[in-house]
């Protein structure tokens, strides 16, 4: 029988994850340590990154215990909830079971930054898609070998939230690419708020 002082569990053990935002889940080894690589179960709608590790002393049930932990960066996709099923791990105290845990996935929101008044429309919560969008637009969807074309990286976002536009790395297969050219930018109005639009251009050569 396993003592309560020897267990493995997720922290936090439930709650919410913001869609499309990197969060952190900790796998706590209480009163024990892993004895081999931890193979996590596949979870639809939840992507795990490479964990960092550490250890610390914690007060649990009025007792001081050594806690070893894996800290996983995670990102939830477009779904309503994600569940990590129960699984087993080999520890310094034998094989232990990690209890199943479920997280609600919620839209990531930010408060509106209306400038002139505090109307409910301006103070509503905005999703990340309300604040900024991006896309790559191709001059041609099909290219012959040796043909030169262009692509545009387009950013649109609420001006109040944007400090500056930056180009991103992009490494397409079977296309030689030049540098992103200096972007052009313009400001428009949408629903009483300023919207900035920037376009970065790049030449492409099919091979």
Describe, in plain words, how this protein is organized in 3D.
There is one protein chain. Helices cover 4% and strands 54% of the residues. The protein is built from 2 helices and 17 strands. The chain starts with 6 loop residues before the first strand and ends with a strand. The longest helix has 4 residues, at 120-123. It is elongated, with a radius of gyration of 24 Å. With 207 residues, the protein is mainly β.
In brief:
By secondary structure, the protein is mainly beta. It contains 2 helices and 17 strands. The strands form 5 sheets. Strands 1, 3, 4, 5 and 6 form a 5-stranded antiparallel sheet that branches.
Could you give the order of the helices and strands?
A: EEEEEEEEEEEHEHEEEEE
Tell me the major beta sheet. 5 strands, antiparallel
Oligomer: single chain
Low-confidence stretches: 115-123
β-strand number: 17
Strand fraction equals over 45%
Straight-line N-to-C gap: 64 Å
Count the helices. How many?
2
Mean pLDDT: 80
What's the Cα radius of gyration?
Answer: 24 Å
Q: Helix coverage percent of residues?
A: under 10%
Helix/strand structural class: mainly beta
Based on CA inertia axes, which overall geometry fits? Answer: elongated
Question: Which key phrases capture this entry?
Answer:
single chain; 207 residues; mainly beta; five-stranded antiparallel β-sheet; 2 helices; 17 strands; 54% strand; elongated
